[in-house]
Automatic annotation (TrEMBL):
A family per Pfam: BacA
EC number in record: 3.6.1.27
Keywords carried by this UniProt record: Antibiotic resistance, Cell membrane, Cell shape, Cell wall biogenesis/degradation, Hydrolase, Membrane, Peptidoglycan synthesis, Transmembrane, Transmembrane helix
Protein name, entry field: Undecaprenyl-diphosphatase
GO molecular function: undecaprenyl-diphosphatase activity
GO CC annotation, single: plasma membrane
NCBIfam families listed in its UniProt record: PRK00281.1-2, PRK00281.1-4, undec_PP_bacA
Other remarks in the entry: Bacitracin is thought to be involved in the inhibition of peptidoglycan synthesis by sequestering undecaprenyl diphosphate, thereby reducing the pool of lipid carrier available.
Gene name tied to this protein: uppP
Source domain of life: Bacteria
Chief place where the protein resides: membrane
Topological category with respect to the lipid bilayer: Multi-pass membrane protein
Function: Catalyzes the dephosphorylation of undecaprenyl diphosphate (UPP). Confers resistance to bacitracin.
Entries under InterPro entries matching the protein: UppP
C-alpha cells in the first residue's frame, strides 16, 4: 500500500474515532500493526493528526467559543467559569503527561495493551451506564469545581493507549453527575488544550526526524490531519445525537468485540 493511501486511511480512522469513546490512538496503533508498518515511524503522525479532528470542534462550536470570548471581555461570570473549568480539567493531564512522557511513549507501540484496554473500557462503560447517579448538571459553566478536578484526573487514564480520552472524560463526567450532552461537549472542548499540548510536544521532540525523512513527513501529517478534520466534522454531530437518545451502550459492546477480536488476532500471530 502506498504511503499516501495509508495516510488517508489513518486520517479516516482518526476522524471517526477521536470523539467516540473507543480510543482513536488505540485504533491507529492497531491499524498500523494490522498493516504491518513500523509503529515507531508512525508514532508522531498518529498523535499530530489529531489536530485536524480538534479543528473540527472549533469550527462546529465556533458560536460557543465566540460567545465565551465576548463574555470574557464583558467579564460575565458564566464565561469565566467556562474558562476556569477547561483550565482546571486540563492541568492534571499536562502535569502527569510531562512527568510520565517516556513511560507513555513506551506504550504507544503496544497493540496488546490497546486490545486489553478496549475490552476493560467496554465493561467500564456498561458499569457506568448501569450505576451512574442521576445526571442533573447541565452546562459546562455549571459543572462544580470538585467535579471538574475529578474529570481532569480521570482524563489521565487515557494516557494508556486504548482507554480513550473522550471515553474517560465523558464517562467520568456521567459518573460524577453531569448530564449526557454536557458531558460530551465538555470532553470535546477539553480535547483542544489537551491535544494541542500533546501534538506540540511531539513536534518539538521529533523535529529533526520529521525534516530528515526518518519518520513520516510533514506533508503526510498535513494530509492526514486534513482528512481527519473533514471526517470529524461529519461524525461529531451524529455522535451527540446518538448518545443523547441512546446512551453509550452500543460503543461499549463495540469496544468489547473489537478488543477481543484484536487480542485473538495478536495472540495467534
Amino acid at each position: 500500500m502506498s504511503e499516501l493511501l495509508t495516510v488517508i486511511l489513518l486520517g479516516i480512522v482518526e476522524g471517526i474515532t477521536e470523539f467516540l469513546p473507543v480510543s482513536s490512538t488505540g485504533h491507529l496503533i492497531l491499524a498500523t500493526r494490522l498493516l504491518g508498518y513500523d509503529a515507531g515511524r508512525w508514532e508522531v503522525f498518529n498523535v499530530v493528526i489529531q489536530l485536524g479532528a480538534i479543528l473540527a470542534i472549533v469550527v462546529l462550536y465556533w458560536r460557543t467559543f465566540w460567545a465565551v470570548g465576548m463574555g470574557l471581555i464583558r467579564r460575565e461570570p458564566k464565561s469565566w467559569l467556562f474558562l476556569r473549568n477547561l483550565v482546571v480539567a486540563f492541568i492534571p493531564a499536562a502535569v502527569i503527561g510531562l512527568a510520565l512522557h517516556h513511560y507513555i511513549e513506551a506504550l504507544l507501540g503496544n497493540a496488546e495493551v490497546v486490545a486489553i484496554a478496549l475490552v476493560v473500557g467496554g465493561f467500564a462503560i456498561l458499569a457506568v451506564e448501569r450505576f451512574a447517579p442521576r445526571s442533573d448538571i447541565s452546562g459546562v459553566a455549571d459543572i462544580p469545581l470538585r467535579t471538574v478536578v475529578g474529570i481532569g484526573l480521570l482524563q489521565c487514564l487515557a494516557m494508556i493507549p486504548g482507554v480513550s480520552r473522550s471515553g474517560a472524560t465523558i464517562l467520568g463526567a456521567l459518573a460524577l453527575g453531569v448530564e449526557r450532552r454536557t458531558a460530551a461537549e465538555f470532553s470535546f472542548f477539553l480535547a483542544i488544550p489537551t491535544m494541542l499540548g500533546a501534538s506540540g510536544l511531539e513536534l518539538m521532540k521529533n523535529h529533526a526526524a520529521l525534516t530528515s525523512g526518518e519518520g513520516v513527513g510533514l506533508l503526510s501529517i498535513a494530509i492526514g490531519a486534513l482528512v481527519s478534520f473533514v471526517v470529524a466534522l461529519l461524525v461529531v454531530k451524529w455522535f451527540v445525537g446518538i448518545v443523547t437518545k441512546h446512551g453509550f451502550v452500543p460503543f461499549a459492546w463495540y469496544r468489547i468485540a473489537a478488543g477481543s477480536a484484536a487480542l485473538v488476532w495478536l495472540l495467534s500471530k
